[in-house]
Amino acid sequence: MHDIRFIRENTAAFDAGLAKRGLAPASPELLAIDERSRAMTTEAQGLLARRNEASKAIGAAKARRDDPTDLMAEVAELKERLPQVEAEQKAVATDLTARLATIPNLPLADVPRGADEGDNLLVHERGTIRDLAFAPAEHDAIGPAIGLDFDTGVKLAGARFTLLRGAAARLHGALGQFMLARLTGTHGYEQVVPPLLVRDEAMFGTGQLPKFAEDLFRTTDGRWLIPTAEVSLTNIVRDSILREEELPLRFTALTACFRSEAGAAGRDTRGFIRQHQFEKAEMVSIVTPDASEAEHERMTQAAEDILTALDLPFRRMKLCTGDMGFSAARTYDLEVWLPGQARYREISSCSTCTDFQARRMNARYRPAGEKGTRFVHTLNGSGLAVGRTLVAVIETYQQEGGAVAVPEALQPFMGGLSVMEPTK
């Protein structure tokens, strides 16, 4: 959420930030509504002051035995007019808030301008791409023999659902537990088991509502299935005033995630890349503004550490304005190399949202030694998407004949199993 006071005082910078995202200037319309709201507030305050003044004058007139008829008529008129002005002011203020709620976060200065993923910038590459002695297959060709059951998933739930069984199910579980162990044990995140269903306020707080309702699943009682644990974890601090010494807060959760993929028709319809239901280990940090820059790097390195431990080649990309999410001020994507596809694919996004989500959630902290409060900064990142990591392991560790080796780091989480043999 944007602060209208910031827009008043930094009109050119606000519109320049929107222009960098490819959006038209919004300040003329917003400031016109804001001016109207403030004018009505001033009018209401004047009417209230005059009503109080006239009411006192009536008492004084009666004490002097003067005729208070005119004053009483004025007070009656003011009592009728004041609620009208207050209601109109409230409607205008609500309209302003609604308009502000649909405007994305402003990109930080170092975010490249661009239209889509083709304009993202390479930050670095890590790991060595294996030179296999045979033509690598894609995961949807190898997977069924070790338990990726696409047909049964579709039979049970429809397109973009998959049933995992046997070795594939064990691998999926092992990856999730490995990620949690790494994030909590090595990187200091506190593990959380959050609700998978949340209220409107939580979805609004992290920016999914009102603009992206079509991308979500909603229950018949009005709750929402989370598209990512970012929603639950970030909203832990909603409507809170934290002490500065409590920060940073770092949370992680391994949860199922649910997305309608309404805007992804025709994309990745084969295989396990883009599902309506998937698991992800999420990272969320709540920090002071002066710590958010370093925290963004720390979080991204935590995700990179998991890929390095699994010996999966990857690269870090800095997203351009056209490819960046609604709430993000800067995003790094980690893309893992998939030998079967012979290309890099996104496996993690790590974003700093500055105080954008905090304003929507009213999440603040009190700096040490100060009476006032400030908004916290929030960050979120995948550490990692479990399904996509499973795809990367299958394609990277495939062996001629259909077997899949288990990365050394995962073997303790799979009872020492070193190779998943095909069963059919």
Describe this structure in words.
The chain has helices spanning 4-9, 11-20, 27-63, 69-101, 139-142, 150-157, 166-185, 200-206, 230-234, 292-309, 356-361, 386-396; strands at 121-126, 148-149, 163-164, 190-191, 197-198, 217-218, 224-225, 241-243, 249-258, 277-287, 314-318, 330-338, 343-352, 364-366, 374-375, 377-385, 404-405, 419-420. By secondary structure, it is of the alpha+beta class. The chain folds into 2 domains: 4-101, Serine-tRNA synthetase, tRNA binding domain (Helix Hairpins), CATH 1.10.287.40; 117-420, Bira Bifunctional Protein, Domain 2 (BirA Bifunctional Protein, domain 2, 2-Layer Sandwich). The strands form 5 sheets. The protein has an 8-stranded mixed β-sheet with strand order 1-11-12-13-16-10-9-4. A hairpin with a 4-residue loop joins strand 12 and strand 13. The two termini are 53 Å apart. 37% of the residues are buried.
